[in-house]
Each structure stands twice: as C-alpha cells, then as structure tokens.
Amino acid sequence: MKEGTNVKFVDLAAPTAQIRKAYLAEVDKLLLRGNFVLTREVEDFEKAWARVVGTRYAVGVSNGSDALYLGLRALGVGDGDEVITQGNAYNASVTAIMRAGAVPRFADIKRDTWQMDVHAAEKLITKKTKAIMPVHLFGQPNDMAALMALAKRHKLRVIEDCAQSHLGAFKGKMTGAWGDIGAFSFYPTKNLGAFGDAGAVTTNDLALYRTLKILRNLGQDGKDNHVEYAFNMRLDAMQAIALRLKLKFLHGATKKRSRAGARYDRMIREARIPVAPAARDPRADHVYHLYPVYSPEKSRDRIRSELLEQGIPTGVYYPLPVYRQPFFRGRHDPCPITDEIVSGIFALPMYADITVQDQRRIVAALENIFLCGKLSLPQIVI
Ligand SMILES: Cc1ncc(COP(=O)(O)O)c(C=O)c1O
C-alpha cells in the first residue's frame, strides 16, 4: 500500500454497534420467552416495514431470492409463462423466475441510466408474458410510471426487485409500492441489512397477502392444512428484531448515502476523468446502494488494481450478465448495451458514513491514474 490506511468498501461495524446492546436485550427476552417461530417480533417488523414502504401489507420471508420467488408464485406465475426482466438483473432475480417454472426474457438497458429500456421490454411481450420484473439496481429506481403504463396496456403483473432500493422512490412513491408485489432483501450489506439472511414481500392486495402468508409457511392455511405446494421460507424472529431496531436509523443513513452519492457525482465530473457514473433520472430518488462507474473495456482491471495498490478496494456488480453465466443454458434475448456496460463497470466504496476525505482521496487516486499516464483513455460520453 502506498498511502495511509485502507479505505473501507462497506462498513457494517458502525451500524451494528448502533443497535448491539438493544438487540442483545431483545434477544434475551425472546430466549426467556422460549417462543421462536413467526413471533410478534416478526409481525411488528412486518407492520413497520409496510408503513415505511407505503403498502398495506408486508410479509417477512427468509431472504430476497425467496421474496422474489414467493411474489411470482403468489401472482400465479408458473410453467410456460414468460417474465420480462432486464439484461443486468442479478442472478437471484432470474433464478426466481426459473424456479417458478417460467422463462426469463431479457430487455436491454438504457445507455444513460443503466435501467430497463421500456421500449425494449414492450418488444418482448408475447401471449405467454405474465409479468414484468424491473430490478432497481444500485439503488436507482426504474421508470415505474412508464412500466406500470406498459403493464396496464398489456394486462401484465409487475413485481419489483427492491433488493438494492430500500427507500428509493420514483415520482415520490417508494419502490415496492408501485407494482403488484415488491420484493426486498435484507442481506447484511443491503441498505437495511439483518444479521444474516432475511427478506420481505410488500403488496397492497389482500388476496396476494393471504396467499403469500400461506406460501411462506409450507403452503399451510391453518395448521397441517397444506393447500399449496410450498416450502419453509419464513423470516426468523432474531432477524426481525435486528431489522426493527435498524429501521430507526434507515432514513438518516439513506440521507447520508444520497449526499455521498451526489458528492461523488460532482467530484468525478469536476475531475474530468474517463470514468462516469450512470445518468441520474431527476424523477427518481436514488439511494446509492452501490456507486458503480463505467470505464471502457480492458481498462477496468488495471484501474482496479492501481486503486487497490493505494489501499482503495472496489467491487464489480456483476462481472457477467446473468445470461452469460455458466448455469444459464437457455436461449437469451440479445442485450448489446448490457454487454457493453457490464464489461466496464466497477463500484467505488460506498456506505452511509463514508467521509468526504475518503471520497476526495478516491477521486484523486483515479485522477492520478490517468494524469500520470499510467492509463490514457479516450474521453467517454455517457
Ligand atoms: C438485485 C438483487 N436481487 C435479489 C437479491 C437476492 O437477495 P438475497 O441475497 O437476500 O437472497 C439480491 C441480493 O443479493 C440483489 O442484489
């Protein structure tokens, strides 16, 4: 390392310390009560989460992958159906569609915002299309007004993948409240993260809510009455306790992320270096789960190793589009823009408490890489 101490890529220690004592006290109460499954702690969190998102209902589940699967099942998606998602969807978004028995179709992304191209999505609609699954990747909400209008025109259901967009909003309405279903992950590094795996499904529809509660609990409608072929995908009480306590800090932490994101945007623009973040949709409240930037192909790995040399870790979300992963053997729709963007993105450190000093140091390090001639690249325009 050439310079000072390492910058952190994410920081889970500070948000954990904020609730550690209260968490231990609550868990102790649970242990003394000796009642562990689908307890009042789970219900309390579900009510609180529905209030935050602005939906009538929230159902706590095992993780974000299962939230997507359960949402699709509740919508009646199954064998032979098609679900349209975006080219840069995460693996779990796509495998949830496949687990439900449906075929994923991939709409390319827009070159500016890196979000679903609604026109590309419309071209994929067939008689088999049942639902659209926008993924609010990196924390920037998709154009939900256009997507909902498209779904209405073609009588399709909408399931939002909100794993990276807690408190993100489009035209003032939260992600997870636009579609028929919102699916959230509370994986520890998410903007609201548990102390292990956890997730939730949100909806305004009473019938969907009732079905979701049955589906997450081995298909039971009342004890031992298994009306659906379904599995154990319940939210654990100890995770519900952590989430409820952390929720108190989510709004404040999100504001800090947004400020840090805007600061990076400005610093990178002023530095005039050939890396750039996605364009920001002015109608969307971006919650900066990650801070990815794009650099033309073949330079990413060199930039990342130069930064690491200077104690600055980066990440790649995700190195390959999911349809190019070895497991995916199906036919896929061509997504040339996804292919191009995915090959050149890497994420800079981002978390609520990242300091201005660290951000300055990161952007200065980037500037140095280019100014010192270690890399000279054509100016890119996004
Ligand atoms: C966009 C997206 N969808 C789905 C998931 C799956 O969530 P989980 O890891 O909780 O199963 C994640 C998180 O890993 C994600 O980032």
Automatic annotation (TrEMBL):
<feature type="modified residue" description="N6-(pyridoxal phosphate)lysine">
    <location>
        <position position="190"/>
    </location>
</feature>
<feature type="active site" description="Proton acceptor">
    <location>
        <position position="190"/>
    </location>
</feature>
<dbReference type="GO" id="GO:0030170">
    <property type="term" value="F:pyridoxal phosphate binding"/>
</dbReference>
<dbReference type="InterPro" id="IPR015422">
    <property type="entry name" value="PyrdxlP-dep_Trfase_small"/>
</dbReference>
<dbReference type="GO" id="GO:0008483">
    <property type="term" value="F:transaminase activity"/>
</dbReference>
<keyword id="KW-0663">Pyridoxal phosphate</keyword>
<dbReference type="GO" id="GO:0000271">
    <property type="term" value="P:polysaccharide biosynthetic process"/>
</dbReference>
<dbReference type="InterPro" id="IPR000653">
    <property type="entry name" value="DegT/StrS_aminotransferase"/>
</dbReference>
<comment type="similarity">
    <text>Belongs to the DegT/DnrJ/EryC1 family.</text>
</comment>
<dbReference type="Pfam" id="PF01041">
    <property type="entry name" value="DegT_DnrJ_EryC1"/>
</dbReference>
<dbReference type="InterPro" id="IPR015424">
    <property type="entry name" value="PyrdxlP-dep_Trfase"/>
</dbReference>
<dbReference type="InterPro" id="IPR015421">
    <property type="entry name" value="PyrdxlP-dep_Trfase_major"/>
</dbReference>
<protein>
    <recommendedName>
        <fullName>Erythromycin biosynthesis sensory transduction protein eryC1</fullName>
    </recommendedName>
</protein>
